[in-house]
Specification:
Structural class: alpha+beta
CATH superfamily: Nucleotide cyclase, GGDEF domain
Helix content: 25-40%
Strand content: 15-25%
Distance between the termini: 47 Å
Number of strands: 8
CATH topology: Alpha-Beta Plaits
Number of domains: 1
Oligomer: single chain
Order of helices and strands: HEEHEEEHHEHEEH
CATH class: Alpha Beta
Strand order of the largest sheet: 3-6-8-7
Length: 179
């Protein structure tokens, strides 16, 4: 059975960043300064670790490419985008929701709520990319590329969750792009 396809996002760059490993792309509505995109990655293949590693690589690459683009735009006096990324493993429900004359493609479920709350920790933790403990476990800690940042209580989530970030050497590589 073919998956329903959402309407394309308004930014083709956003689609290019997330469509490489994604099967579903959905807009998460919010105030203009907090607009978000949610990409889901299918676990059709049995090697969960490989899928998670590709997702991590895509997130790091997207972040590095965005830094380069932002430097170009800043040098030209143009506005630029600040983007935070959170990766989590969990089940979601998706589909078109609404009336016949106004359908929105939506992704819902506890996993969606959790990853949205995780992303809000990026700024206070000084990290552009965060990972849930479920992602870190599924990814086999990505060959030592992830480190625990501690346990955090996420709004709307019953128990505190362990959150992971990139190891300092990985974060430093992203920051070198700025130099």
């Amino acid at each position: 059975m073919a998956l329903p396809r959402p309407a394309p996002p308004t930014s083709s760059r956003a689609l290019a960043v997330t469509s490489v490993n994604s099967s579903i792309l959905a807009r998460v509505p919010g105030p203009a300064e907090r607009e978000a995109m949610l990409a889901t990655i299918s676990f059709d293949e049995r090697d969960e670790k490989a899928v998670c590693r590709r997702a991590l690589d895509a997130a790091v690459e997207a972040s590095a490419n965005l830094k380069i683009r932002n430097l170009e735009r800043e040098a030209a006096g143009l506005p630029f985008a600040e983007v935070d990324i959170a990766l989590h493993v969990g089940e979601v429900l998706y589909g078109n929701v609404g009336a016949v004359d106004r359908l929105d493609f939506t992704v819902i479920g506890p996993a969606v709520n959790e990853v949205v709350r995780m992303e809000k920790l990026c700024e206070p933790l000084g990290q552009q990319i965060l990972f849930s403990s479920r992602f870190a476990e599924a990814a086999g800690r990505c060959a030592g590329r992830l480190e625990s940042l501690g346990r955090f209580q996420l709004r709307g989530v019953d128990e505190a969750k362990e959150i992971f970030g990139l190891r300092l050497s990985q974060t430093a590589a992203l920051q070198r792009v700025e130099a």
